[in-house]
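Run log // design_07
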């Protein structure tokens, strides 16, 4: 009986997650954010919804909320390139470039990232590093 309930919950989560993605893809960002917020609150431990939500926060310029989300995600999943990049971008847009660069260095110390290598090169070329 427990497995049936768990299985039903997973399919409900997947259906609601896919619906939030459809809403996002249709350009209704505020509605997608609302749907993903509910999903994240109800289903903690599902980083895919949190990553999408964080990306939407960045897209909307809501860097403070993105920072909270990506800080938490990076703490839970330090090897996640997407979480680290989201944290970097949040910090950078909030004017915390030293913290952003520190996050880039933290990630690159343990993991490889083509995106971070590109970012580092671009920042060096612009004299920002």
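design_07 sequence
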């Amino acid at each position: 009986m427990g497995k049936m309930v768990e299985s039903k919950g997973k399919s409900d989560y997947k259906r609601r997650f896919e619906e939030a993605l459809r809403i996002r893809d249709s350009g209704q960002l505020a509605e997608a954010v609302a749907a993903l917020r509910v999903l994240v609150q109800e289903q903690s431990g599902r980083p895919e919804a949190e990553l999408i939500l964080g990306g939407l926060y960045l897209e909307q310029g809501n860097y403070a909320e993105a920072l909270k989300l990506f800080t938490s995600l990076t703490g839970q999943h330090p090897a996640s390139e997407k979480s680290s990049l989201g944290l970097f971008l949040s910090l950078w847009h909030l004017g915390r470039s030293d913290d952003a660069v520190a996050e880039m260095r933290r990630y690159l110390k343990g993991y490889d990232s083509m995106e971070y290598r590109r970012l580092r090169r671009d920042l060096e070329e612009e004299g920002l590093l």
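Confidence is low (pLDDT under 50) at residues 1-7.
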